[in-house]
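Quick question, first post here. What does this chain look like in 3D?
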Amino acid sequence: TMKTFMYTAMAALATSAAAMPGIRETDSDLLYVNLLVDPAVIEDYLNPAFTLDTYNGKAMVSVMALHIDKLEMQLPFDIWMPTGSSSYLAKTVTYAKHGDEVGYIILSMDFTSLTESLGCSATQPGVICEHSKYSRDDTNVYVSASNDVHFNATYTIGTEDADADLLEWVIPRAYKFLQDGVGEDSTAYHGAQDGKDDPSLVQGVKVDVTDLDTNMLSERFGWDDASWELGP
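> Answer (accepted):
Ran it through. Tokens below.
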């Protein structure tokens, strides 16, 4: 299923000054691999403006494998300009709040398109943006980035519906957050997004991950991969 989301211009929380233009993105073939850990492992990473949003008492990081079918940039007078590029993408996020705003923090994005990775680096403060090797089929997703960073998940796609409470917790988040460093040494950004409350998004089937080999969290963020467990 193909879905379109519109991200409004991100603004620095301290100044409310727009830091980057709005983006409209059309995605398809979303796969979530969710990992759970004690919140203490990543709480110190967050800018103080954000509070960790936990799932059943655990911090969650999701590695989302998807295809960006179309990406458009917002110009003055609400004109949307197609970038003319598309890419497979592995997006790593964790979940947080800013006051009453419920959203997610983008940690890293691995693109098959060099153009998209360069655009990400130019417009997404603090996000690790890489031009990476990526392959995916009905049983496996594999990402290989610089410095031998890798994510390799083997799975079985089931027929049973995914847990409704999990879908409601993960998907309809109205805010995107960024931070350009770690903890107090970072600047926090936020922006609203439209389209995540579409009821047709809150659906999916369970995926059983049978094997996971990754060093992504430890190499990029210093979080011991062995301390994580597979989530729902």
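Confidence is low (pLDDT under 50) at residues 1-7, 15-19.
The longest helix spans residues 114-123.
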